[in-house]
Amino acid sequence: MATVSGDIDPSCAICGAPPFPECPHEGERMELALNQAQARWSGMQEIRDWVLNHARNQVMVTFHQLRQLRYQAHVGYLQSLPCFTLYYRYNGQPPIQPAQLHLLHTQISQANAIFKQGVDEDWRRSCLRYPDVLDYYFNLVGFVLPEEQDSAVSNPVFGASAKERPRVKAKKESVDAGSAKELRKKEHRRSRGRTPPPHAPMPGAYR
Ligand SMILES: [Zn+2]
């Protein structure tokens, strides 16, 4: 015997396939629409820019401190080398034995190479801190989600889209009217893990 049921499941909004077995299209389109909406929202970019600027600045400050300390140690070592002061005063041509000068050249270039390696290591370590530093600044960002009772949440008024897309409007009205059938259908779909938000139709499906 044929039964009539109010909470019949709709077919896939994208390809029209029957609701079971579930096809991936609605979920894929929803993900795409969410990402596109997020990209259109300037707040996300502002947060990313703010976090990145502060994280980058913090990493640079730390690196400059490390490099400065290493440079001081490097200069201290050079100054401790025999004849280095003479070498410096005579612009690299001090009046000393060639063998001694050769040794000094070797020591200076070794020290310079070690200094360079150390600076590279400081930079590498500074950059490895990015995940923690980014987390830190993201966690400083405050955000406020509106109350569910807020009329802007429960009775949203969409702008031009309502005029341009009559079918969207029709759909929205039926939900706003509190149609028990619509609500049941949506609850049912949500319970199955397919979660089109009540007021957000699939992109492309109603154009
Ligand atoms: Zn489909």
Describe the protein in words.
By secondary structure, this protein is mainly α. Among the domains are: 93 residues; 38 residues, no CATH class. Helix content is 65%, strand content 0%. It has nine helices and no strands. α2 packs antiparallel against α4. The radius of gyration is 33 Å and the shape is elongated. The two termini are 38 Å apart. It binds zinc ion. Zinc ion binds next to loops.
Keywords:
single chain, 207 residues, mainly alpha, binds zinc ion
Question: Which helices and strands appear, and what pairs or packs with what?
Answer:
Blueprint lengths: L24 H16 L1 H39 L3 H6 L8 H31 L1 H11 L10 H4 L5 H5 L1 H11 L3 H12 L16
This protein binds zinc ion (ZN).
Zinc ion binds next to loops.
